[in-house]
Amino acid sequence: MKPMEFLPLQVSHLFFRYSEREEWTLKDITFQVKENEFVAIIGPNGGGKTTLIKLILGFLKPTKGEIKLFGEEPQKGNYRVGYVAQHTTFSLDIPLSVIDIVLQGRLGKWKLFPSKTDRHRAMEILEKLKIAHLANRLISELSGGERQKVLIARALAVEPDLLIMDEPTSAIDMEGQKEILDLIESIKITRLVVSHDIKILMRQVDKIIYIHKTAVIHDGPKLEIPKETHFCEVELINFLQNTSNLETSTEEVGSEN
């Protein structure tokens, strides 16, 4: 019998607060992420985005409600998740090479040393991300954008079914941000990206979840953006306004008939 397939992520009526004396950090959050979807989580600083990610990964437990990763509790299902944290988890003073960092994704509680297969797989991922030439460079020698690509490679080395990234373009220059967003868009697995950067909305995201204590779910805007054309937040706002005006006009015409 074929095993039952579950959605990568289901969040149902989630409430969370850090103590009973505090207000709700997250209140009645419900959404789901389907296989191969590209989902952006946006919202203001302090709105609860990173707290939500910690709950999804099992680092925190809900006060009320339920989270399922592939049909399991987060602590059991998170082995299928690749995670890129907002802040690096290693010291740049330690002389680690790029390949050393990526191989960390191949290790675990019961595996302390990488095999030849692990090294081969790590190099395949670096080649796919077009940074194989950096394999023997020290992580401290890289630019912010290059370093972030290495962290994404480490997350992919887990061979995850769901990739979660928290602010992957923060503290990176404009060119590096574009490269990272291009890379994220090209990865063909389920992706959940947390960002306060509105440029994430210019990508072909399937769903947008706005988090500010509660959640508002939007379909991703379907933008046709020529690769060599300037397109920034101003064009995005104009596009959304024009789309909204068009929908309003259509509704008015329909109501007259």
What would you say this structure looks like, in words?
The chain has two domains: 9-222, P-loop containing nucleotide triphosphate hydrolases (Rossmann fold), CATH 3.40.50.300; 225-257. It starts with 8 loop residues before the first strand and ends with a helix. Residues 247-257 have low confidence and may be disordered. It has a six-stranded mixed beta sheet with strand order 5-6-7-3-8-9. A three-stranded antiparallel beta sheet has the order 2-1-4. It has seven helices and nine strands. The protein has 257 residues and is α/β, with parallel strands linked by helices.
Pick out its properties.
7 helices; disordered C terminus; three-stranded antiparallel β-sheet; Rossmann fold; alpha/beta; 257 residues
What's a quick, concise take on this entry?
This protein has 2 domains: 9-222, P-loop containing nucleotide triphosphate hydrolases (Rossmann fold), CATH 3.40.50; 225-257.
The CATH superfamily of the largest domain is identified as: P-loop containing nucleotide triphosphate hydrolases
Please give the share of residues in helix: 25-40%
Indicate the CATH class of the largest domain: Alpha Beta
Integer average pLDDT: 85
Topology of this protein?
Blueprint: E1 9-16, E2 26-33, E3 38-42, H1 49-57, E4 64-69, H2 74-77, E5 81-84, H3 98-103, H4 116-128, H5 144-157, E6 162-166, H6 174-186, E7 190-194, E8 207-212, E9 214-219, H7 233-256
